[in-house]
UniProtKB/TrEMBL annotation, chain A:
<keyword id="KW-1003">Cell membrane</keyword>
<keyword id="KW-0813">Transport</keyword>
<feature type="transmembrane region" description="Helical">
    <location>
        <begin position="239"/>
        <end position="267"/>
    </location>
</feature>
<feature type="transmembrane region" description="Helical">
    <location>
        <begin position="116"/>
        <end position="136"/>
    </location>
</feature>
<feature type="transmembrane region" description="Helical">
    <location>
        <begin position="142"/>
        <end position="166"/>
    </location>
</feature>
<feature type="transmembrane region" description="Helical">
    <location>
        <begin position="89"/>
        <end position="109"/>
    </location>
</feature>
<dbReference type="InterPro" id="IPR000522">
    <property type="entry name" value="ABC_transptr_permease_BtuC"/>
</dbReference>
From TrEMBL, chain B:
<feature type="domain" description="Fe/B12 periplasmic-binding">
    <location>
        <begin position="25"/>
        <end position="277"/>
    </location>
</feature>
<protein>
    <submittedName>
        <fullName>ABC transporter substrate-binding protein</fullName>
    </submittedName>
</protein>
<dbReference type="InterPro" id="IPR050902">
    <property type="entry name" value="ABC_Transporter_SBP"/>
</dbReference>
<dbReference type="Pfam" id="PF01497">
    <property type="entry name" value="Peripla_BP_2"/>
</dbReference>
<dbReference type="InterPro" id="IPR002491">
    <property type="entry name" value="ABC_transptr_periplasmic_BD"/>
</dbReference>
Automatic annotation (TrEMBL), chain C:
<dbReference type="InterPro" id="IPR027417">
    <property type="entry name" value="P-loop_NTPase"/>
</dbReference>
<feature type="domain" description="ABC transporter">
    <location>
        <begin position="2"/>
        <end position="235"/>
    </location>
</feature>
<keyword id="KW-1278">Translocase</keyword>
<keyword id="KW-0547">Nucleotide-binding</keyword>
<protein>
    <submittedName>
        <fullName>ABC transporter ATP-binding protein</fullName>
    </submittedName>
</protein>
<comment type="function">
    <text>Part of the ABC transporter complex HmuTUV involved in hemin import. Responsible for energy coupling to the transport system.</text>
</comment>
<dbReference type="GO" id="GO:0005524">
    <property type="term" value="F:ATP binding"/>
</dbReference>
């Protein structure tokens, strides 16, 4: 790690700490933080302790987990596909995960075992990534974006269909929650549900740095340097599994939050450069910070109305996308 | 050919008159009128009901509704059953009501019941419309007798209760639930805390106010995030034992004689709270 | 010493290699000659382990390379492909340090490794070490890919038409770099189309056409007839080399 990276990472960690503290302290209801913390640790069910430990804390933890996963998987997909527009949301991976989770949750399967919910998200995400890689093959950036657009609208349409067909009268109104994502009123059980997949997936993705570096020289060279692409031990399968695990588990509890994976690596590249392995840890931290910030904005702005967090991240992320489009027009390439 | 028109007119009037003598054909477009129709009209007079009547989470007469024809309340469906009497809610199926009026059906529109005292009037209107006023009066007499039999709890300092519905909605001051709370001897949190009517209440706000009783109002079949909010572990942790109670939505979604059952449930909950309080200290 | 024994390779019902046997010595530059589609690139790819062979065996100092792990093979053998993807906006020295990946070395430790510095010097890229790779000229890129291979310190360098699209000055410098690597004891195998360059810089030539080895010989023994058989052109001798002259 260079000095610059150490500085950046510690800066990101500090901003995460700051955002975590703000998120825990600020809210609709004011109470003595220290007293609430004390009561929570003592296991007392006072208003302060339940709000702090039962509502705000899981929300903050989920913010870090989901944001980190999205940032990291964005960086990994961009490295693997050698395309700065790769993002789990834009490419339909999150959409696939949302579809899988919706299929499990609304049919009541998740009542049989709560672990089935992240499993549904995981299977959806896995199918989406696999389909994406099959569709794209060695195609260009344009093919990738077209495939992603097709996949995300297809999965969104199927999600809407499922939500309209299930018995619950509320289901059809919850489409935005799945397509835009939200961290509102999540609990510790959601954290525990998502944790194994997020931890496993993120470790797999973090360990892919060298392979991604080798891939910048092309698939043939990477292979002769000892990084197999396809097959059971291949980089491809590792990345598919890692992304599906992490993104699938996250989306199952938070819905598909877009643009984090696109924006974060893009902004951080200015600081750490274009080497994929250098981008992984900062992208995780940056994604976590961005999502915590977005969630704080949601909480400040929304009040009694429920604003989806994906709206905020899209408002932040869309300008980056516009900028990329202009660049593409100027250079004819990404 | 001009002579044809009055002839057709005469024939048509004859047909209508013939209809008038037969049993009236009753169609209902709304869950609340569905249930009143099932209680007050003869089974064979009812030609169509709305889909929700079969949903036991919303309708107290879901089993009675089973044998009847169910249709989505749109204009085409309503015309196809040739109704004589159409029962509808104030806000639903406007086009269907208009279409029924065009073909000359007798329309009865019931506004939503907002107080327990609205219920006898509604029963009476539907009973008269379907041609069985005596059945209506019997229901009303029983309803009022039961209500009179309940002790007056509306005065004094009462415990606070919140009616928590799917999606985090809290029943406001202008709702039937609010009146039921009043008769059961509770203050409604929404009124007490001046919460915005029909708004979504953040969980934090609910916990911070800490009402004495949390009333979970489950409605609708199936599973959704909205319904899952009622199963939030934070709620069971925070409102243990006697501090929470389930009231089936079907009891007070519509103003019915059965709504008094909700009052009874809540009065029992109030008694349990009081008992708990005297034991605790 | 790298040897291939009776290598055969088929793809899409076409025979790409037909029982090819050849020997590539250390300290030598071996040029693979032959018309387009003869199987030269396939031979390199099969040797590098990129394309599986249907039959035959590849040995390194007498050991079957099947017995080596991918990491071991990656340290022994560096492959430079014919066409490279667009390079990322990473400094030249970092690209070269990727050559240390087979040893598990990354980051500043790899960049500061003596092999990387040697590679920078050997390819004349020392002055461009901090330049972004996507801003290099074609000739500089070719030298960069060569430097990355050298940083691996592999005994064997397989280079596929590295001089295609290079001007004479850059082609010459790349050949000189490969030559000096061979003199330092490495085994260099390259696909080459320039007969004059081949006869001037290679120690040994392997002529391939239709997936078969037609001849394996030192450049001095290359004759008009052989060239005519392989390429279908007549040649004229200029100095010590042959230059294609007329199509027959």
């Amino acid at each position: 790690m260079t000095k610059r990276e150490v500085l950046l990472n510690s800066l990101l960690c500090m901003s995460i700490c700051l955002l975590v503290m703000t998120s825990l302290l600020w809210g609709e209801h004011g109470f003595s933080f220290m007293q609430a913390l004390h009561e929570w640790l003592a296991g007392q069910h006072t208003a302060g302790s339940v709000i702090l430990g039962g509502l705000r804390l899981p929300r903050v933890i989920l913010g870090i987990m989901v944001g980190g996963t999205l940032g990291l998987s964005g960086a990994v997909l961009q490295g693997y596909l050698r395309n700065p527009l790769a993002d789990p949301g834009l490419l339909g991976v999150s959409g696939g995960a949302a579809l899988g989770a919706v299929c499990v949750f609304y049919t009541g399967l998740s009542v049989m075992g709560s672990a089935l919910l992240p499993a549904g998200g995981l299977i959806g995400a896995f199918l989406a990534v696999a389909m994406l890689l099959l569709l794209v093959g060695r195609g260009t950036a344009l093919v990738l974006l077209l495939a992603g657009a097709a996949l995300s609208s297809f999965t969104a349409a199927l999600t809407a269909l499922v939500l309209n067909l299930v018995p619950s009268p509320y289901a059809s109104f919850e489409i935005m929650r799945w397509l835009m994502g939200s961290l509102t009123d999540r609990t510790m059980s959601d954290v525990l549900l998502a944790l194994p997949g997020v931890a496993g997936g993120c470790i797999v993705m973090m360990l892919s740095g060298r392979a991604l570096d080798a891939l910048t020289l092309g698939e043939d060279v990477a292979q002769t340097m000892g990084f197999h692409l396809r097959g059971l031990k291949g980089v491809q399968l590792r990345l598919v599994v890692g992304t599906a695990l992490a993104v699938g588990s996250c989306v199952a509890v938070s819905g598909a939050i877009g643009f984090v994976g696109l924006v974060v690596p893009h902004l951080l590249r200015v600081v750490v450069g274009y080497r994929p392995s250098r981008l992984l840890l900062p992208s995780f931290l940056g994604g976590a910070a961005l999502l915590l910030l977005s969630d704080l904005i949601v909480r400040v702005v929304s009040g009694h109305k429920d604003i989806q967090i994906g709206v905020i991240t899209a408002l932040i992320g869309a300008p980056v996308f516009f900028y990329r489009v202009l660049q593409f027009r100027k250079q004819g390439q990404f | 050919m001009r002579w044809l028109i009055p002839l057709i007119g005469i024939v048509y009037c004859g047909v209508l008159a013939g209809h008038g003598q037969a049993a009236p054909r009753i169609a209902s477009l709304n869950l609340c009128t569905d249930q009143l129709a099932l209680m007050l009209a003869d089974k064979e007079e009812i030609v169509a009901l709305s889909p929700l009547v079969r949903d036991c989470s919303a309708s107290v007469l879901c089993h009675e509704g089973l044998p009847h024809v169910i249709f989505a309340a749109d204009a085409e469906n309503i015309l196809s059953v040739h109704p004589d009497i159409v029962l509808a809610g104030q806000y639903t199926a406007r086009t269907a009501v208009m279409a029924a009026r065009e073909v000359g059906a007798h329309i009865v529109i019931l506004p939503p019941a907002r107080r327990l005292s609205d219920i006898p009037g509604q029963i009476r209107r539907v009973a008269q419309a379907v041609g069985h006023p005596e059945r209506g009066e019997a229901f009303i007499a029983a309803f009022e007798k039961r209500l009179r039999g309940m002790s007056d709890l509306t005065t004094g300092v009462n415990p606070i209760a919140a009616v928590y519905e799917a999606n985090g909605l809290v029943a406001g001051g202008a709702s039937l639930q609010n009146d039921v709370l009043k008769y059961s001897g509770f203050q409604n949190l929404a009124v007490r805390a001046a919460l915005p009517a029909g708004g979504r209440i953040p969980l934090e706000t609910l916990l911070a106010w800490r009402p004495d009783l949390l009333i979970l109002d489950r409605s609708g079949q199936g599973h959704s995030l909205a319904q899952a909010m009622l199963d939030n572990p934070v709620l069971t942790e925070f409102f243990p034992g006697v501090h929470h109670v389930n009231v089936p939505a079907s009891l007070w979604l519509c103003g019915l004689p059965q709504t008094l059952e909700a009052v009874a449930v809540l009065r029992r909950a109030r008694a349990a709270l009081a008992e708990n309080k005297t034991e605790a200290p | 010493m790298l040897e291939v024994h009776h290598l055969s390779c088929q793809a899409g019902g076409r025979t790409l290699l037909d029982a090819v046997s050849a020997q590539f010595d250390k300290g030598c530059v071996t040029g693979l000659l032959g018309p387009n589609g003869a199987g030269k690139s396939t031979l390199l790819k099969v040797t590098a382990g990129l394309v599986p062979a249907c039959a035959g065996k590849i040995t390194l100092d007498g050991h079957d390379i099947q017995s080596l792990t991918t990491a071991q093979l990656a340290r022994q053998l560096a492959y430079i492909p014919q066409d490279n993807p667009p390079l990322p906006a990473i400094p030249v020295c970092e690209i070269i340090s990727l050559g240390r990946l087979p040893y598990g070395e990354t980051g500043s430790r790899a960049i500061k490794h003596y092999a990387v510095e040697n590679a920078l010097k050997a390819t004349g890229l020392a002055d461009l070490a901090q330049r972004r790779a996507d801003q290099l000229s074609g000739g500089e890129k070719a030298r960069l890919m060569l430097a990355r291979a050298l940083a691996t310190e592999a005994e064997i360098i397989l280079a596929d038409e590295v001089m295609a699209a290079l001007d004479p000055a850059h082609a010459l410098s790349v050949m000189q770099i490969l030559r000096s690597q061979a003199e330092a004891g490495r085994c260099v195998v390259l696909v080459i189309h320039d007969l004059l360059m081949a006869t001037r810089f290679c120690d040994n030539l392997v002529l391939i056409s239709d997936g078969k080895v037609q001849a394996s010989l030192p450049p001095a023994d290359l004759t008009d007839t052989l060239v005519q058989n392989v390429y279908g052109v007549t040649t004229r001798k200029i100095g010590t080399g042959l230059v294609p002259w007329n199509r027959v």
